Amino acid sequence: MDMPSLRRSCFLPTLMLSAAAALLAAAVEAAPVDLTQASIADLENAMAKGSLTSEKLTKLYLARIKAYDKQGPAINAVITLNPAALDTARALDAERRSKGPRGPLHGIPVILKDNYNTADLPTTAGSFMLRGSIPPQDAFLVKKLRDAGAIVLAKVNLSEFASGGAHSSIGGQTLNPHDLTRTPSGSSGGTGAGIAAVFAPLGMGTDTGGSIRGPSTSNGVVGLKPTHGLLSRGGIVPLALSFDTGGPLALNVADVAAALGVMTGIDPADAATQKSAGKFETDYTRYLKADALKGARIGIARDFMGQDQEVDWVIEASLDAMRKQGATIVEVHYPKWLLQTKTEFYNVIRRPEFAAQITDYLITLKPGYPRSHKELMDLSETLTSPRDGYTPNGSRWALFKEEANSGTLTSPQYLAVRDHGLPLVRAEIEGILSSNQLDAIVYPTSPRRPARIDADPVPGATGGESATNFANLTGFPDLIVPAGFTTGGLPIGISFFGPAFSEPKLLGLGYSFEQATKARRLPVHTPALPGEKIGT
């Protein structure tokens, strides 16, 4: 055989192998993704290629809501569906074709906790006392999401006025899609359950003492309580503005990062956002690196373990996973005085603030609604049995009297905690982080598995001692990532807690942990439906 023939004979197999490799790569790239596993980036990629439209995507989520929210397992997360959602999706599809996408959330449906003002849908805070209330304008974050091309798909259930269990007089009891006998936790229980059941890829909750983080861990999803002031509180029904913040919940860390970046910015109507000047980002996805745990120093707060053996086991396994990724684990302990005062400090601020600040919110509403905390308290006593589709919520309504008797915003105890107690807590925790050179402190978000919904209250019991309100007392961020499950299939989450405006670091650490462990699972009661494959 001459040399040209020999070269051709050697080249042909190589060419065939290259072609086969290219075909395989194309097949892998084009492999469909399950809707229940798809990231927002997957959805956007499919829409960019023309294999998916926002209209089709919205219909898929509406089908899941139809199948699982009021029938089947009857998760009961949704209070109000947006009748204009499909029209909005079609308009955004047309805009994509003519102008291209607005950004990473173009055409993406989102569910909102029903304490976010929406000018086109009722905002009830879960209460029969605000049924049908249409606020004058969208909340600042809702406007940000809509401007980014997101579609408000539904308003979802919550603990009434964002406190108490995952029950409201207007929405009833929301169930946990992993175990229908267990709580989805409050107060953003409808958002947590709705995201776990994949009613949308993105949801918005609010957090005053753990209200994003409890539902995140109980439903096995990712959630972020941001730094106080990173996101505007404008147009959110207040619980206690010293602690309140909105924040995203999603199926994965990347989606939380994508959502966070479109919502930051200074709101002239919310002075707290001035703290974020020069510190907020518009793209947090650039901090997502699979090796972010390598070289990190992570504190473990064991003060909040020892309450549930299986939760502890998952946390220990999580620490081992971090060590394998190159992190150094450091034992940290909070001082006794801090552990003993955190709940009292919280209540001294939370209760009188709601009594005053809910009144400020109510006077912005149209005529016919209560105008004060006292009117809410008086009206709550008129619903003592189920009537007209509404259910009593005595555990929340009992708090009205505690709030009414908690003093005012000029009371000495309130001023002492606000002006001296909270700065002391913040300085102590900053000291723990800096003296140990920590990138974050981790702890079990909930020290016990989700409780049974029908459990009788135990006299004098306050539930599992959790560290969540430290993030509110300090204003620091806290990222929750699924960490594992109990033997009974109940989710367990782990918190990554860090100093003010450390969201880039926390998202990187959480992403690295998520990629190493891949602990999220689709709830057994809300499986994939036929026809949910997304071509990418």
Describe the fold and architecture.
- Helices cover 39% and strands 13% of the residues.
- The protein has 536 residues and is of the alpha/beta class.
- The protein has a single domain, classed as Amidase signature (AS) enzymes.
- It has an 11-stranded mixed beta sheet, sandwiched between helices. A two-stranded antiparallel sheet has the order 1-15. It has a two-stranded antiparallel sheet with strand order 5-6.
- A hairpin with a 5-residue loop joins strand 13 (478-485) and strand 14 (491-497).
- Helix 6 (189-196) runs parallel beside helix 7 (213-219) and helix 11 (373-380) runs antiparallel to helix 12 (394-404).
- It is globular and about 60 Å long.
- The two termini are 47 Å apart.
From the structure above, extract its key features.
536 residues; alpha/beta; Amidase signature (AS) enzymes; two-stranded antiparallel ribbon; 15 helices; 15 strands; 39% helix; disordered N terminus
Record the strand order, biggest sheet: 2-4-3-7-9-8-13-14-12-10-11
Look at the helices and sheets and give the structural class. alpha/beta
**Helical run tally:** 15
Report the biggest beta sheet as strand number plus sense, adding barrel if it closes: 11 strands, mixed
Task: Please state the overall shape, judged from the principal axes of the Cα atoms.
Answer: globular
CATH superfamily caption:
Amidase signature (AS) domain
Helix content: 25-40%
Just give the CATH class. Answer: Alpha Beta
Total DSSP E strands? 15
Rg from C-alpha positions?
24 Å
Distance, first to last CA: 47 Å
Write the layout of secondary structure elements.
Elements: H1 3-30, E1 33-34, H2 40-49, H3 54-68, E2 78-81, H4 85-99, E3 109-113, H5 140-147, E4 151-156, E5 167-168, E6 172-173, H6 189-196, E7 202-207, H7 213-219, E8 222-225, E9 245-250, H8 253-263, E10 297-301, H9 309-324, E11 328-332, H10 336-362, H11 373-380, H12 394-404, H13 412-435, E12 440-444, H14 469-474, E13 478-485, E14 491-497, H15 503-517, E15 533-534
Parallel strand pairs: 3-4, 3-7, 10-11, 10-12
Antiparallel strand pairs: 1-15, 2-4, 5-6, 7-9, 8-9, 8-13, 12-14, 13-14
Helix pairs in contact: 3-4, 6-7, 10-12, 10-13, 11-12
